[in-house]
Amino acid sequence: MAAAATISDLRRPLILSNTHLTHTFADDNSPSQHILTINDHPGYNNNINNNNQDLSRFAGAFARTEGNPYEVIGSDGFEAPVSTTVDPFRNLTPKIEGVYEWVKMVVCVPIALVRVVLFGLCIVVGYVATKLALCGWKDSSNAMPRWRCRVMYVTRLCGRAILFSFGYHWIKRKGKPAPREIAPMLVSNHVSYIDPIFFFYEACPTIVTSESHDSMPFVGVIIRAMQVIYVNRFSYQSRKQAVHEIKRKASTNTYPRVLLFPEGTTTNGRQLISFQLGAFIPGLPIQPVVIRYPHVHFDQSWGHISLPALMFRMFMQFHNFMEVEYLPVISPSQNHKESPARFAERTGRAMALALNVAQTYHSFADYALLSKAVEAGQERFSPFMVEMAQVQKLYQLSSSEAVGFLGRFLAMNPDNSGFVQYQDFIRVLRLKHSRLSEHIFGFIDADKDGSITFKEYMNGPVDVPNSDKFVFRFYVFLVGSIHVLKLPLFPRACEAAFNESDEDKDHYISLMEFGGSTSAVIPDLTTSEIQALFELFDVDGDGRISKDDFITCLRRNPLLIAHFNHLFMHKDLDAERGLDEMV
After folding, report:
1. Please, which residues have CB within 8 angstroms of residue 237's CB and are 6 or more apart in sequence?
2. Could you tell me the end-to-end alpha-carbon distance of the chain, in angstroms, rounded to an integer?
3. I want to staple 205 with a disulfide (CB 3.0 to 4.6 A). Which of 49, 89, 259, 360 is the partner?
């Protein structure tokens, strides 16, 4: 009953029918002024008590909801899912450290020189052999003829010699590859650029890889000879076509078996991250393969380390260890139609068990976030990875949207632990300290689990917050922002806010109109502060805010919708949404 009364109160008009509000801008040194004019007309005195009750009821409703500034559009708060602080992409030995390593570097110099010569010779011979195998072959839509495949044996032997040059003198194997007729597909964890070289030598499978690899020197020619399946992971149509090709080639015995790395990127091998579903949608039997790189002094994983640096370190080792284990074939359930997600889950569980590691909800999208943090010069990366597979499943969030949110978060100058302070938060959103700004910031502190140290503002004074207490991390900023963005009433709230701000109904919001709508909730705004916030909303920079500008800005910064609550509190957004759906 109380909740219903509150919602009813919030839908009452902010300004009564016999009340007129005008606004005058302040300059940078004087406060803004709000003029409330009461129109005295016949009958007004008879209703003054009722109107005062309406104002009191509205004030009480606002007081009850200002702790959650998004309740008016249907939010009852959010809980950020538990996220690990593990970094599955971190190489543990990115630098040469210790006396033993430096002595070994000196001793291995002549060995490394021989290895480099062998590596270069193998690249040249393999490249020439591959060009011969491809010479005159135009029918790439069908399987490569057998005689061309025999020529490719030369390149495969060169691949084994390349592994030898990198210090993999012997490779420990456990289990055996199943016949192609039983398991037409292989899936493997992905730790290093060594993985595909090994599989090329071992089975010369058809692989699924990014379109960008085709233009790489030497590599592009070789993967074309492997009858590669190209995919642009950011294009739905490309992914759909890749799945079709996977099923077609895996179902035809004239093609080699298909190999996929379902993690979608390399990890450090200490965790297994979430799987992409492309390997499991065809519903064919799969043989999982797990790869390990045991080490003491040199981590061979391709994590936070450049490819040239990793190759150099490999050349400078006495021997590099590699273990490959073929696991039992896993088939889709025959008793009932098994979903690709369930099939992937069973396969991932078997591989994680064999590796004796945990499987996390990190994904390639986390690697994209990591790359963004690297570009920004961050020294620690784990605070900016959020186990995106879990977030995407809950909120239907794209990788590009997540990277965009991280870009805005990084603009808030997070410290080395990934925390952002209140003052930087309001600076980037072009806000000014106010009670509402505090409540917006406080809304992000959703989980109260200790990693977010902002705890005590709710009953505190309106003073500028203590910077040691008003902090949060990217994870809760992302989840809180997406929670607001995905609220069913958010689109209607954006439209209502625009329509109410557009006072002259010319389909644009001028600077004067924008100042009138925002200064009602942000006290003492100066002209320059209004201009700064206006420029944030003026996405195309043409000096006026169109509806597209307005909605685009709010989709990028969904927390800002709270500053327009007063424009649609009196509207039944849920009813308007229902009418839109009926239309």
Report:
1. none
2. 31
3. 259
Contact between 303 and 89 (Cβ < 8 Å)? yes
Q: Distance between CA atoms of 560 and 484, rounded to whole angstroms?
A: 10
Q: How far apart are CA 281 and CA 289, in angstroms?
A: 19
Question: Between 545 and 392, whose confidence is greater?
Answer: 545
Question: For position 298, what pLDDT does the model report?
Answer: 92
The SS3 call for residue 17 is coil
DSSP 117-151: HHHHHHHHHHHHHHHHHHTT---TTSPPPHHHHHH
What percentage of the chain exceeds 70 in pLDDT?
81
User: Measured at the alpha carbon of residue 565, what is the angle toward residues 560 and 569, in degrees to the nearest 5?
Assistant: 160
SS3 239: helix
What pLDDT, on the 0 to 100 scale, is given for residue 456?
28
Give which of 515, 557, 549 is closest to 24, Cα–Cα: 515
| Contact predicate 204/152, CB 8 Å | yes
Task: Name the residue type at position 562.
Answer: A
pLDDT tens digits along 90-101 = 888 888 888 988
Mean pLDDT of the chain: 80
Rg for the chain, CA atoms, rounded = 31
pTM of the model: 0.77
Question: Pairing relation of β-strands 172-174 and 33-38?
Answer: unpaired
169 pLDDT exceeds 90? yes
